[in-house]
Structure formats: C-alpha cells, structure tokens
Amino acid sequence: MRTGVCYYPEHWPEERWATDAAHMRRLGLSVVRIGEFAWSRLEERDGSLSLDWLERAMNILHDAGLSIVLGTPTATPPRWMLDKYPDMLAVDAQGRRRDFGSRRHYCFSHEPYIDECRRIVSILAERFGEHPGLIAWQTDNEYGCHSTSISYSAQALAAFRGWCADRYTDIRQLNLAWGNVFWSMEYDSFEQIGLPVGTVTESNPSHQLAYWRFSSAQIRRFNRAQVEILRKLSPGRDILHNYMGNFVEFDHHELSRDLDIATWDNYPLGFLTRDSDDAEDQKLFLRTGHPDSSAFHHDLYRGCCNGRWWVMEQQPGPVNWAPYNPSPASGMVRLWGWEAFAHGAEVMSYFRWRQAPFGQEQTHTGVLLPNGDDDVAAAEIAVLNRELDELASLPANALTGNTVHPDDRIGGHASTVQSSVAIVFSYAGIAMQDIQPPGGSGYSSLDFCQRLYGACRQWGVNVDIVSPQAALDHYRLILVCTSTEDDAPLVEKLEAVRREQQPIIALFPGTGSRSSEYRIPDELPPGQFARLIPVRIVRSESLPLRTVLTASDATGRYLNCARWREHVNSPIEPRMRFSDGWGFHYEQERIHYINAIPDDPALRSLAGEWLQQAGLPCRDIGPLVRTQRIGPYRLAFNFGTQRVDLDKHLGPRLDFHHDTQVLIGSRTLDHAQVAVWVVR
Amino acid sequence: MRTGVCYYPEHWPEERWATDAAHMRRLGLSVVRIGEFAWSRLEERDGSLSLDWLERAMNILHDAGLSIVLGTPTATPPRWMLDKYPDMLAVDAQGRRRDFGSRRHYCFSHEPYIDECRRIVSILAERFGEHPGLIAWQTDNEYGCHSTSISYSAQALAAFRGWCADRYTDIRQLNLAWGNVFWSMEYDSFEQIGLPVGTVTESNPSHQLAYWRFSSAQIRRFNRAQVEILRKLSPGRDILHNYMGNFVEFDHHELSRDLDIATWDNYPLGFLTRDSDDAEDQKLFLRTGHPDSSAFHHDLYRGCCNGRWWVMEQQPGPVNWAPYNPSPASGMVRLWGWEAFAHGAEVMSYFRWRQAPFGQEQTHTGVLLPNGDDDVAAAEIAVLNRELDELASLPANALTGNTVHPDDRIGGHASTVQSSVAIVFSYAGIAMQDIQPPGGSGYSSLDFCQRLYGACRQWGVNVDIVSPQAALDHYRLILVCTSTEDDAPLVEKLEAVRREQQPIIALFPGTGSRSSEYRIPDELPPGQFARLIPVRIVRSESLPLRTVLTASDATGRYLNCARWREHVNSPIEPRMRFSDGWGFHYEQERIHYINAIPDDPALRSLAGEWLQQAGLPCRDIGPLVRTQRIGPYRLAFNFGTQRVDLDKHLGPRLDFHHDTQVLIGSRTLDHAQVAVWVVR
Amino acid sequence: MRTGVCYYPEHWPEERWATDAAHMRRLGLSVVRIGEFAWSRLEERDGSLSLDWLERAMNILHDAGLSIVLGTPTATPPRWMLDKYPDMLAVDAQGRRRDFGSRRHYCFSHEPYIDECRRIVSILAERFGEHPGLIAWQTDNEYGCHSTSISYSAQALAAFRGWCADRYTDIRQLNLAWGNVFWSMEYDSFEQIGLPVGTVTESNPSHQLAYWRFSSAQIRRFNRAQVEILRKLSPGRDILHNYMGNFVEFDHHELSRDLDIATWDNYPLGFLTRDSDDAEDQKLFLRTGHPDSSAFHHDLYRGCCNGRWWVMEQQPGPVNWAPYNPSPASGMVRLWGWEAFAHGAEVMSYFRWRQAPFGQEQTHTGVLLPNGDDDVAAAEIAVLNRELDELASLPANALTGNTVHPDDRIGGHASTVQSSVAIVFSYAGIAMQDIQPPGGSGYSSLDFCQRLYGACRQWGVNVDIVSPQAALDHYRLILVCTSTEDDAPLVEKLEAVRREQQPIIALFPGTGSRSSEYRIPDELPPGQFARLIPVRIVRSESLPLRTVLTASDATGRYLNCARWREHVNSPIEPRMRFSDGWGFHYEQERIHYINAIPDDPALRSLAGEWLQQAGLPCRDIGPLVRTQRIGPYRLAFNFGTQRVDLDKHLGPRLDFHHDTQVLIGSRTLDHAQVAVWVVR
Q1: FRET label pair with C364: which of A90, A675, B56, C105, CA 20 to 30 Å apart?
Q2: Which residues contact C556 (CB under 8 A, 6 or more apart)?
C-alpha cells in the first residue's frame, strides 16, 4: 500500500511547492492529488487558459518522486460560467436555485454545462494526459455531496420525461406500471409528467423510484462524458472517482462500471458524530470512530471495481463539518492506515496536506498546520510508512513457510483479500426502502446492513460486500439484506450457487418485497425469492423505537427484535415464536428467512451460528476488537480502552498461536493499537 | 348496525368483481362504497365520459345484495384538468403551489373548478341517482386531509377580501373589529387585505381567526355545490361525507347542516402513534389504540347530524401513514365493530376491501391481501357479523322485560344512545385557542377535551358531545371546555337550563375569553359566562411541561394541575388554593369554574364528584376498561392485558348483576374482548 | 432613578387620557413613552397628517407632570406605504418577502423608505421637538427584532456590492481577503457578488462576516438618518433607542455612538423560557428569571453610552411571546426595579400601561388590566416608588459619614457604579463564532460570556461589560472572552494597561483566532494576543454535550470542562493537564490563557482565584443571591426560595456588618426580596 495526500498548489506561494514536495517524501508519501477545485485559476475568464502554473506544479511534484492524480475541476465551475448559463444551477425540492458561492453548483442534466466539462477535461487531458508523473485522473469530486444527486430543475424534468419515454414507450404503459389509476393520477402524455415533490401528500412511490433511477443514471452519464475523453487522451492512466461514506443516493455499482478504481473519503469521527443515533456508540467511539465504519466502506468499495480501491481522503485530525469535531485518539491515524492495508487498499491518501487558513474548511485539520509546521498526523504517517517498508522487507518466507509477496507491500489486488462471507448490497434496494421505510419513521436499511456486517466481523471473519450482479459461487455464507427488489437474476444465481456449493443463504426482511416498478409482487413478498424457501409475507408491521419483541423456542433460547416484523405463512415450522404466536426464523436446507430486525446480540448470535455451520474459523471477539486477513497476514485492531491479550482474545481459531511472532505491534494491544503477524 | 367496505372496482379486472361481491356477502358485509377516486376512469379526457364500467360494477354489487354508496370523485381531478386550470391548485403558507401527483390538489376557492365539480356530479347523479342499489352519496373525500383546509392562493385571497367586505361592510369597521391600530396595521380598503401568513412576526389573531372562519365557510360552500345537485337528481338517497379523526381544521358542525349522515374514518392505531405525545399511552395501547379514541369521535360525530352517523373507513390491520404502523391485537377488529355498535353507528365500513399492490397506500392493509386471499381481518369481520345477527335474533324481551328492537340490530338512531352528560364542543373555540395557545407551546385544547371525555368514561357513563347550538335541556352534567368564544346564546341557553333543570355545569379555562372577533371581552373573561358564576379572570399563565402545581384544601385533599392556570377574582371562596395563594375551583349553586388544567387523576376525581352529585349511576372503572349503554344493552370492552371480572369491575351500579346473562362474550373479559348483555 | 411606562393613547378613548395620566402619577411614575407605533394615525393617507391628537395627548401627559419620550413611528409604516414601494419589504434567507401585517416590515437598505422616515421624523420633530414635556426621542423600535437585522432583498444586495467596492477597492483584493480561490469562488467584478445564503453548502465565512458587518452598518446608517434630523430640530432632548435582551445580531457599540442613552427591553421570564437550554435553571428561576439575566444586560448597556442607560420596557407580569409565560413571583416587579437602580439606571419604564384587549399582544400583561383596573404590578410599582422616595430623603450622611447624593435617587450616572472587573465584549467576535461555532452544534459564545459574568457575580463584585474600544486602565481584573478577532489595538491597550497597572488578564478560548477578514492568523491563534502570553493554539476540538473532560494538577485539584478545547503549544508549563496529556490553564505574570470551556463550578473557582489575587473584596455567595454596590449603597437580592441571613451570607467582606442598618428590606431576605443599606 502506498500513501498519499491531497494538495492545493494554487492555495500557496509557488516558492513553497518544492519544500512541500520534499517534506511529503520525507513522511513517506508517494502519491499526490491536485487540481480538483482549481478551475478559476486554470481558466480565469471564459477561454482564457492558464495551465503553465499547473505544469510547473506537476513537474515539481514529479521531480520529487511523487505520483500525481489530477482531478477534473468540474465540481467548482467558475463564476463566469454562471453568467453564460444562469440556468445551470440545480434546484431543490422546494423549487429554490442552489446558488453559486460554495461548490457543486450545477445540475447533472444541464447539457451545455456538460459540454463545458468536456471542453475543460479535453484541454487538461491534451496538455497533461501523458505527463510522466501522472498516474490517474479523478473525475469531479464527491458526486452527490451536499444532497446534489437529485435536482428538480426544468432541465432535469425535461430529461426525466425523455427517460420515461425511453423506458415505457407508451404513456399507458407508464400509468399501468406505476399504478396511476390509484388516485386518478393517470397521465395522457409524457409531457404531463411532473416532479415527485411538492405534491399535496406523498407522491407515488413508483414515481419517486423512477426519479431516483433517472437521477442515478444522469450522474453516470455526466461522469462518462469525462471518462470517454480521458480514455482517449490519457492512455494508461487509471480513472477514479472519490465516493463518500454513509452515502447511497445513487447507484455506485453502476457508475463504477466506467472507472478503474473506486476511491472514497473516510472521516471516521465525522461519520460517527454526524450519522450515529446510538448514544452509547457516540461515547465509546468518540475518538476512534465506530470499529465497523471504515472497514464496512473499505469492503463496500472493494466490491465496486473488481477489487481495486483507494482511500482518497483520510481524516488526519478534527474535521470541520460534523456537529462535533473531536480530536482522534493518539494512534488512530496509524491504525486507520493499517486498517486500509488490511482491507486491500492500493493507496491511502490524506486530506489535506496543509490546513487552509481561509475558506469554508479552515478548521479542517491537515498533515501540516496552517502555518506550515507539522500537525500531529505527520508523525503517525511517518511511523506508518516506516512500518510498511519494514513489513515489505521482512523475510516472511523464513518466518512462516507461506509465500509473502516479496515485491510489494500487499494491497490493491482483490485476490489478496479472501472472504467466504458475502453481503449482497443493492443501492436500488436501499433507495426503495427509504421511499417508504418499512421499519417506520427513522428506520435505515443502510444502518441495518452495517449492523449485520458488524455482527459477522465480531466473529473475526473477512466479509465481502458485493453487488447483486456479482459472482457468488465462492462464498460459504451469503447474506441478502438490502435486496428489496424482486430480482429474478439474483434469485437464479442463488439457486445455481445453492445447487453447486450449498452455501448458507440468509434472507432478511423486505427481500423481494417490491417489483422493479415499486409494486408488491403478485405472489406477495419475497416474490421470486420464495423459490429458495417457501415463505409468504402476509403482513408487515413497524414499531416504535423502544418496543422490543422477544422470540423464543422450547429450549428457552431467545432473541430480541425491534422496529420491523413480518408475518410469515409457510409450511416450515419457525425456529422460534413471538409471544403473540407469530413465527420467527424460517430455515430449510441451509436457506434462512429472518422475518424481523434482530438487535445486536441477536444478530451476533445468528451470524455465529451460520459461520460455524458453514465451517468457517471464527470466534466471538466482541464489539471493541476487529481483525482482518490479507494475503499471508492477519491484523488486529483495538478500538476499546482496555488492553487486549491476543493469545486469549483471538487464539488459534483466528490464527494467533502461543508462538506467533508479531511483526508490527505486540502480543497485547493497547487502545488504538495494531498488531500484524503472518498466518501460519 | 350494518357492515360495509370500501371498494375500487377500477383497480381490479372486471372479471374479479362478481367474485369480490360474493365474498363480501359471505363475510356479512352489506354496504359498499365506490367511485371516490375514479375520475380519470370516468372521464379520461375532458368531456369524454366512460360511465358504463361503473354501471356494470354497480349492477354486479347490487345483484349480490350490496347497498352502494357512490363517492363523487372531486378529491382527485384528473391531470387534464390542470391543463385547463393551472391556477386551480392550492397554495401553502410559504407560497408554493401544492402540485398534482397525489390527491386533494385543488383550492376550495377556485370557481371554475367548483363548476367542473358541479358538472361531474350532475353527470353521475343523472346517470346513477336512481340506481336501485344506491343508498347514499359521499361528497368528495376527507375534506381538509393533508392540511388542505386552508389555501393561500390568489383566488382564496380575492374571495377572502369579498368575505370581509360582506362581513364588515366598511373597512373602518374591520380595522376597529381587529384592532388594527395596534401596530398601524390599518387598511384603507378591502383590496389591501393580505394573507395572515408570511408576515414579519405573527399576524393579528383577529386576522387569523377571520381567515379560519372564511376557509371553513369555503369548504361548506364547496360541499353545498354538490349537495344541491344530488338532492335534486337523486331523491331519497342520503348524503354524507367522511370526516377524519383528531381533526378540527374546519367547523364540522356547520358543514354537517347540509348532510344527512356524518361519517368518519377511524384508524385507532394510526392516531395513537401519529398524535399521542404520551409515551406511556404509546406503549400500553400500541395494538389497541387509546380506549377513548374511537369512542370520543363516535360521540362527536353522533352530535353532528341529529344522531345519524357511520364509520366509513375502519382500520383492518396496519396502516401505511403513521410514524409506526403496528398490527392490531387479535380481537381488536371485532372489538372496534362492537364499539361502533355501542355508540349507535348505522354502518361500520372497512377500508379497504383488498390491499392495493401499487400506489401510495400499498402497505395499507385491507380485508383481503394484495393477492386476493383473506387477510386476518376477514375472519374477525365474519365473526362480528354472525354475532350481530345472533343478537338481533335473541328473544330479548323474555330475558329482561325490556323492549328490545325486534327488527333491527340496534344503532343508527340517536334515540337509542341515551346520555345524561354533555360536553359542549366548539370548533371555532378550538381554532381560537390554537391561534394563541393559552397553555403554552404545544398545548392542545382538543387533547384536553379528549382527556375530559376520558375522565367521565372512566366512571362508566355515556357521554354526548354536542355543538354550542345543541339543545341542552335533558342533561344532568354539562361540561363547557372549548367555548373560547364569549357566546351569548350559549350563556342564555345555560341560564335557561339551569333555571329549569338545575344540572351541574362546569366551565373550564379559557371559557368566554375572547369575543367573536378575537378580543378579550371588555368585562374580562369569562365574559358573559360570568352571569352563571361571578368570576373574573385577571391573569392567565402558561407553564412548561413538567411544572406541576398542587392545589389543596384544609382537609388535605389535593389535586395537581399543569400547563395553564388562571387567576380568579371572585366573591366566592375557592374550594382549594395553590401554594402561592391563587384559588382553584370556584363553585356556586351547582355551577363550577375550573381555572387550571387538572391532570388525569384530578380530572377523574372532579368528574366522579359531579356525576355523583348529579345522581348518575357510575363507578370508577379505571383507565383500561370502557362500557357503554345503547338501547336495552350494555357493552364492556377490555383494552388492558389483564383479565377483568365484570362482576367485580362493573357491578350493579353499571348494570352487571350476579345473575346477569352475557349474550356475547363472557363474564370475564380477556385482552381485546367484548361483552354484551341486556340491562335489567 | 425615575420610573416610567409605555403608553398608547391612540388605543384608548381620548376621554380616558387624563384619568390614565393622573393614575400614572399616583403610582409614582414620571416618564411616559408614546407614539412609536402610531404612524397610521399620524398620517392616515400619504401626506395627510393628523398630529393634533398627539399634541393633545402630550399636553395632558405633560400637564399631569409626566416627562415624555416620543417614539419615531418608523417600525410600523402604514399600509399605503406598501402601495408606494412594494419592494420596500425585507426578504428572508429563503428569498421570501417578509410581508405587511405585523411590524418591522421594511428593509434597512431601501433608500426611498429611509427618505420617508426622514420625512415623518422631520414633521414630528418640527411640531413637537421643543414641546415642554418632551425629554427624549426614541428612534424606531427594537432594531432587529423578529430577525430583521439582515435582509436579502435586491436593494440589500446592491448596497452590499457597493459596500464591498468601498472596502476592497479592487475585486482581486476581495478575492484574496476572502480566500475565494478555495473552491474557485473568485469573482471577476463586484457586480458578481452574491448573497451568502442559498448556496449549495455553507458559503464562505468571510463572505458571511462581510454581510454581517454590512448589515450592522446599514442599521446604524438607518438610525443616523433620524438622529441627524432630531439633533437639529429638537435641541436639548436626549436620543435613545430600545435594544433587546440576548440579542447580538448587530453591533450595538457602533450604533450607540450616535445615541445619548442606551435603553433596553427587559423580560426576565420570557428570556428564560425562550432562551435557556438548562432544564434546572428553567425550573429554579421560572418565576424570577435567571439571577444574571437582567444584571448582565444592565451592565452591557451601561457600557454603550458612557454609562447612561434605561430600561425602556420592563416585564410587569406574564408576557405573550415566550414558549411558556408564567406569572412572576410576588415581589419580583419591585425587585427588578431595585436591581435596575443598583446597576445605575436613570429610568425604569414598564411595558405597558394597560393590557391591550386586541392585536398580537393581547395576552401581554400591563400595569393595568384590559378593563382599566389595576393589575398586580401596579401595587409593587407604587411600593417601589415610595421606597425610592424614602431612600432619597434619608439623612444618609448621619448614618455613615459617606456622602449620599442628597438631591437624587441615585442612578443614571456612570460614575456612580464603580467596578474593578471588566468583561471585554465584542459583537463582531460573537458573530464570528456564530458563523462557524468552535464549540460545536448549538454552542453559544454569548451564553458562555453570561456564565462567566455570573461566575464573577457569585463572588459579590460589580462587573463592567465594555466594548473592545473602551478604556481599561482602571480595572484590576480584565476578562477577554468574545474577542475572536485578532484585534491589534486591543492587544496594544492590554499591553499598556499591563505595564502600568498589572491587572490580572484572562483570555478565553477563541481569542484572536481569526483575522478581521475571517482567516486563521498566520502565526496561529491567539494571533497578536500571544504578545501577552506565549501560547500557540495548534488544534481545537468540539465535543458532544455530555462529554466532560477533567483537568487536574499534582495536588489533586481538578476542574471540569466541556464543549470546546484547544491544544496549546507553549514554553509555559500548564497549571493542569487533561487525562490525555493536553495542558489546561496557562499563566504567566498575571496573564492567564484558559484553553477550554470550564463548567460553572470551574468558572466560579477561577473567578474567585483571580478576584482574590487582584485584592478585591469578594465572597462566594452562591447561585441564588446577588449583590451590587452603587454610590454609597449596597443592595442584595434573593432569587432563591430559602430565606437568607445577610450577616452570614454576605458579611463584612461584602459590606454587611453586625451593626449595619438596613434601609429598605431587612437583615434576612425572603424569596424575591431586596435589601438596601449604606456602605460603611
């Protein structure tokens, strides 16, 4: 794994560039991302280009030995662009223009702006596409950030009507698909179709889903306009985009088809204070982030581009944008680096090199302080890089008999992360649940998926998070938890896998509960998934936050559920029953249907049972420690404040033996510490 | 009482209609409502009518023995209507059009749309007005749903100016009435009058009240346009509208003057999770609804059309629209049916026949599942109808000596529900309190009224809820709790009743505290109500939620109050005093003035005292059981989870004797169970 | 101190005026404010003046012996003004016009409206400027009330562009100052500058700060337009404006330069229930207001106009506008009067004379009830005035040997309130912190400043609150807690004071953390304040509400902090350390840097230490009692419910000796009671 940093030469005096580049190298950094917000300096007036400074900057960075990622600057069109296209701005759900003065001030459906993007990207690619220091292009920056995935502009509406005409051909077909007869909502022509917002009460969920699909497709289309140019003019360079965390507003699997590498921006403490509604987690993990937060996204984005992924922006200290911005615990910057390594990152890049003393993010820390001195992250990054070098140079064969990659620090190749557990992850499925939350007000299916991931991880196993289109034949445990859509190809694939490999397959509430047009399947949920296990959902209920439902069996074993429960008709006797007689947990021939939302202990119990049945080495390591295997190595991470003895805590089932020699770290892990050893 | 169901033939293949009709009959249903959202199928293009399918549907239903209620489809104008009248949409308080794409997308003040409604109603009435299966018309659907009572459109403003000119004649008169001198808000002409929203700080409460009265009158006017046509073209058929629960945004007493029957839509679990702010209630009654919720509205709407009322839509299972949508406890569908019977419903109709697999309400359950199989409500409805038949056929005379209606299942006739207790309920009075809540932020006078109702019901008595215009001469206890308006005719009526019958009369905080123009009465509150008891309110205070004020007397008896308290000047010595010396509870010659908001135990204590003084048979039956007398019967309902022994719990004071023979149910009531017996 | 009242002759029949005036005098009131909302009666149509009634009113009031404050009526332009200037309305952050129908419906940047204000003020000043009863003019009313300080109208934007052109001359200068390169936000011309709202994500904080400064300047400019006329046409009369509580939306120090007297509107109970987020305070002080609330503002506004200040509106009973409006405890109206006296008020004026039975504030109590009878405040005001008379007439010299002002009731002259403690208060500094709250979501630097004030006050000392421009040379303890701006003149002044007087100076988090253009200083925070003490802030973190950080020293002494913490680099050894090693509390040569937000006990501990080191007589009197010295007097106030023995509670350190003779009140203070005595 290489490390890198995000750098803004346009923010600093040119005489400082070489100093910065040399210092980056001293810290062990070898990748640098530049350019993604610099349009106003690349083209100060319409057509008036100033590319020389960028070339000088690239030369300096390259000369210092840094590999360059160049960002296309399309997330921040300059002010003069607005004079040309006053209607290029996105429009929010209340019909208000989302104005110039920050960033992402454009609508994905504005064709002239897309042409402007083609133009600037062509100019940059022609000039720099074969620069010797250039290794990759980043398209735009954080698509969808600040709720920009969806725009309700006139351009968007016109494009949506066209999208509908393409999809349904005949307006009567659309009326039928959406069930518009329901409240006399039938259209006479595509030109009458409106936006799914601003209606008297909620708009038709089919309409909402169509608009989500359309908006997601528009982003992919916008991105592809740049990719096509870059492929042509900058051969051999990777194309990537930087995705975000806890963000599912468009289909990342779809967009990733056009990229070489999926990268993402990882701010563990910001995500916790912004997104968690668990007060205990907020307290326990205030300075470490949630133990599953980084790993979940690492595994999710590893599933996007055939295993190639980076962290493009990594939190180095307090950020500026969360409700509360605490300082990371000492050691966490290093830990997060090793964690990315363990999940197979090619590159771990920090945001940002030097804290800007101006602008919106002036309280976002960097590797350097605003005055150019080292901030505390610098030292941890230097340590991380020394340790990575050390590991790469170890005579690992001698240690273990295993083949350790001799020429690489490991990482960045899907093949190096092996997992027997897959979570099937559907962006559209999550969107469908968000449109009409089946778990009631505030229920989040993304959060449930992360909790399920965490339940597996607390047994010490690697987990893949894969798209519904991914191959599933090498997994021993397959968890289907966001596949709201009644997805025939997925069902067929699961049936095939089941015939061949007999993995354990678990389906969770809501699976197959809607057609692709957002209708309840004719044969009731789980639709065609019932070919895997004969269950029919005849009722679904949502429950207030504090309502706990306990399911138990004759032996007295019990599990607690909450939020959402389905009533199942099935010839199968349920494994447990709730006190009112509703069944819970249907199983037949290694296929499980879980018809309620288990709480964390229940999820962990179920995960453990399945992992053991699947014959996977695992052990309950609790909520505070995490471990991951990559290539010949296993790593362990301690997010808790108590010291952990790896002998006792992991033991042989998780590759830690009394004579295991720890290469990085030690046999006991303190708070925020890491250990790395070679698997026997 | 008959039972019925809401049916949408346009949602299902025509070949299914007869099957459905036959199955309805099998379950004992005999009434069916259709048509209220079908405009886009009745008139696919402007003027292009398709009425034949509706006639075929009506014929099939009628042939199966079902009585038909036909809804006018005016709550869902088709999309082409918008092309004709782009300005027909309502406008919200932020000035945004409330757009097409769901329902109720029209402004009550749009004259051309009202003409379109006249046109379609005339067409339907001409074609179907004398159909032999037709027993009633429903106008539109749920007036005011989704906050549509009030529109801030240009049409509405113009109509409001006209309404003001009619009411005040001279703009100086309006300025004087509203006290516009207060902040130089005086108008020079009616054309200058604006909307009472969008102002820098709150607009004049007199202005707000006028706009509320105007908006309420516009709804009545809109409704009357249809009624006039239906009266003429469909003689002998009842005209009704379906009101809602916990909804007071227009004056239902006024609108009901034009109807034959008041019907309402009863979703007990939805109301609880959406409207209750009591965490304990949310837990206790999650699967039953609050014990007073249905009954309160039954009694409220029984007071609207001379005792004639229905439930038009009854919850059969989880709904889709509340924050949480739990499944009703087993037995509740039957219990709600008997409860409607006990309060005198003519018809109890379920919403909806078959769960729609498409559209906004696809997770709203029905009597049938989306696939056409029976959902669980079907069985409970069948039982209810068998028991109703059984009761109707009993030789009740032999049992009791009372005359039991021999030819009817009871219900639907005001005379059959006898009550000696009345709550005077003023829609305008509630609106006035909502404009400037005298109980502070979040205080709801509707909620207080329901708690007062519940306090009486916990003593086992029947309660009438009546309009301020209703006759009061047959009551022994009269509770005046929402009459904010200084209502001279009501005062005169109370004085007359007091002279003749000496009932106990209790006035609650805020009574007579504003003139009809929203001014404090010259002689201070309670205005002319002081003719009943010499009290003057010299101060009113609101208190934070958790502040409890305890009033006590010399004997140590105490009651707790909260939220709102008035300081009374009076020659009468108060019955109790608060610790700071303010008096509480003034009484003189059977007239009581309660000058603070008692908590539930205090309200129950006061209600019990008054009922006993009034000589009414009553007994404290606590918060979980309810009982109601109708005709010769008394019924009891158990909303709690503990079994209740009627001998001990009700006893002779509430008509249950050791030798009482229970006709339906048994002497002990389990959770969600009902008992019916004949009063000796 | 004189007492007064706000009166609206235009609300009452002319025949009542003399009665009211006589009754005012009977209660001891001698000042009356009139006219500030009467424009629609002074000029019913454009140009059609009706000033005679006002003259008659003034004559009646004057003849009764009342001194008159005349308000300019510009806060409530009449409705016809809108017909002339439909664009005169302010526009909110969502782009909506803030409409006619209440008050303050104008934009400070609308030139024609400013001309109209000049016109009406000229007319009034010409007619009444030398009326013998007139002692002062109030300009407009409560600038900024209802969030009107900032308008986003087209006029405001145009004026802002001009303001920017004046300030920065060259657009490149502005781009540089604001750091617009950050996200390609650079402008090509001043005409491209937009509003700092409606952007996709937050706008540039430099842009926000500039708009705040501009808006603040526009208010001063608006006010000055009136002041210039009044100075000319009404010689010898004071000019004042009535400010508000807990309100910092514009720079009051700046505007005050144009006034003679700062007055403010004091509603202690309303402020508590509206603004406090401390549940315990809300309970303890429900009926008294927070013990520091009035005093803090008295001291703040005493610092605005060279010590001349009034309370222009004082709460007499429940108000109408807070979330909850409780009744003040018996005695509080009198207590608040004495408190104003103690802090040096010239006038204490009640709002309002008689409760209006109409309009928006009809539930706002007055001195009289709506029917004209005395409300309870009347009696307390009469007592207060008798006691003030009594005190003024006492042969105080005989009692004490001190010189007691023989001809005045004391108050109204800065010299009479002596303080050795100063809090430097910066409006711009607070605005800067509110733009990007360094203490995280919901953190309020104004609230912290009030807590710091309270910590001092709990040691029994007088406190001055002064502008950054104020002279500081006579203070022994100087607290710098809102000086976010890196303020060179302030630093120089502090250095000078330090050289000469060696006061104790304490700097609090955020001091000097931003340049005047909202950038982090090049040398890091605290910028030039580091000349006072060598500290550099290298990191700042914000923390969730319930996170407590404990700092301790080797002796085991500890203090708790929360919300916000800075990491300090310094050659100085910190006095304490947090458990993670960060230092806390840096001190060198009587200069302290406090680098986290102490909780209340910690603040009290620090304040006590400093006061004692400064050699000031002080004693911890706890959170419920307050005391203040003025001239020869000391006063004590009991906000708690327990009786307080002044001998024990204050004792000699706070001027209470065993033989002290209490002039007003007694040696033991009950709830809401006051004591006044002469300092030995």
Answers
A1: C105
A2: none
